[in-house]
Amino acid sequence: MPIALIKIIEGRSPEKKRRLIESVSQAMADSLEMPLDAVRVLLHEYPSGHWGRGGRLVSDIQAKTPSESPSAQVADATAKLLAN
What we know:
Blueprint: E1 3-9, H1 14-32, E2 40-46, E3 52-53, E4 56-57, H2 58-64, H3 70-83
Parallel strand pairs: 1-2
Antiparallel strand pairs: 3-4
Helix pairs in contact: 1-3
């Protein structure tokens, strides 16, 4: 059984996490030509103070950016791509 390990910064809604897990699961099942029920996804969430990007804490980056963090935008874009 294939297992996807996804590490993200905490703070996304249950609906976004649900869509991500559904999209990744479907993409793996399709790619590997196996039943969807055989795919497992483990989602690990980390505080933004435990995550670095570009040599800086994401919590520091988020404090300077009032809009949604770049990491959240990447996760959302990935989920959308996998859904298509």
